[in-house]
Amino acid sequence: MISACLEFLALGLCASGTLLVMVACGLPMWKVSAFIEGNIVVAQNIWDGLWMSCVVQSTGQMQCKVHDSMLALGTDIQTARALTVISAVLGVLGLTFTIAGAQCTNCIKTETTKAKVVNAGGVIYIISGLFVLIPLCWMANNIISDFYNPQIMPANKREIGAALYIGWAGAGLLLIGGTILCCSCPQQFKSSYPIKYAPTKSVTQNGDYDKRNYV
Of 94, 102, 85, which is closest to residue 123 (Cα–Cα)? Predict the structure, then answer.
């Protein structure tokens, strides 16, 4: 019962984490404008994402443009694109494994095989969390380095956007849920030595045991 409850909890965490990763991948708010020093013009706010850049006017009007050339992008954005997409795909794959091996489903008959499949799903979720954590931390490090770089103009400096925080939350849920899945199914293997029972002793008509049983 406890194992089934842990599976449901881990499945909810991992599904939520995968959804957050997909949202972070699509949002254009990985980098946002930093208003520092003389850069106090707040008429527009610039958002930079993996797939597009947006300019938000103070009136609420927003204009977005998809990145024209992938080769013209930086290495961090190209890597972030690949790893976040792979992380989302692994999240869906891990969901399939977990549901197939869950105790509430009958896709797999053998309990031992079910436990192994659920553990495999947990490992996939952990890998998915690590895959999305790498570009998030890399992008955040580049943003912070550029922010404190005196050679970069204040108008070109960016701050960490909301998409990075959403991605970090998703990565945390994936890692926690994957760890729970790996620990929720105890390995209960049957003894490899079969139990042999001795045949019952026959009783004669007089009520005594047959002497052949003592030979």
Answer: 94
